Automatic annotation (TrEMBL):
PANTHER family: NADH UBIQUINONE OXIDOREDUCTASE SUBUNIT ND6, NADH-UBIQUINONE OXIDOREDUCTASE CHAIN 6
Enzyme class: translocase
Top-level taxonomic group: Eukaryota
Protein name according to UniProt: NADH-ubiquinone oxidoreductase chain 6
Catalytic activity: a ubiquinone + NADH + 5 H(+)(in) = a ubiquinol + NAD(+) + 4 H(+)(out)
Gene symbol of the encoding locus: ND6
One GO CC term, this protein: mitochondrial membrane
UniProt-listed InterPro entries: ComplexI_Subunit6
Membrane-spanning residues: 46-67, 79-98, 138-159
Record EC number: 7.1.1.2
Annotated organism of origin: Cosmoscarta heros
Subcellular location, principal: mitochondrion
Key word Translocase present: yes
Subcellular location field: Mitochondrion membrane
Length: 170
């Protein structure tokens, strides 16, 4: 299940680069947000941290949606057959790769650390936090932190009361 979600996340991030319409870009960001929060929740003891991240991402997405809808409000959405074929090809390739190599599903890069956590400390909350910031899920957490930082900086730079598309029309 984790490998399938990870492959869907890779596919959606590669499809995000081909998107041109703000609505489709926002939809891909929603998919990536949901997948990354679900992956982070599967690696931890509880889904609480993933729920907080999801709510934070949705708040940032709402600000971005307001800004983009004020810029491109009447732009037509065009459906691309080329994009659909590329998505179909990528998903079938990912599924074939997962099914051909059985070690990809059960591979664990940090088994020594996880066994140390389970043997030394029976506190599940502490082991959950340690698992979240160790190697398999550390990159997901770091990418989420960097994304939130960049979203906050871009929102602050974009929204100026006296200038920009979010100002009041006279």
């Amino acid at each position: 299940m984790k490998m399938m979600m990870l492959s869907m996340s890779i596919m959606s991030s590669s499809l995000f680069m081909t998107m041109k319409h703000p609505l489709s870009m926002g939809f891909m960001l929603m998919i990536q947000t949901t997948l990354s929060c679900m992956l982070n929740g599967m690696n931890s003891y509880s889904y609480w941290f993933s729920y907080i991240l999801f709510i934070t991402f949705i708040g940032g997405m709402m600000v971005l949606f307001i800004y983009m809808s004020s810029i491109a409000s009447n732009e037509k959405f065009k459906f691309s057959m080329k994009l659909l074929l590329m998505m179909l090809f990528m998903s079938s390739t990912m599924m074939l790769m997962i099914n051909m190599d059985p070690t990809m599903i059960t591979k664990n890069n940090n088994s020594e650390m996880l066994s140390f956590i389970n043997s030394k400390n029976n506190n599940k909350e502490m082991s959950s936090i340690m698992k979240m910031f160790n190697m398999p899920s550390m990159m997901i957490s770091m990418m989420m932190i960097i994304y939130l930082l960049l979203t906050m900086i871009s929102t602050v730079k974009i929204t100026n009361i006296k200038e920009g598309p979010l100002r009041m029309k006279n």
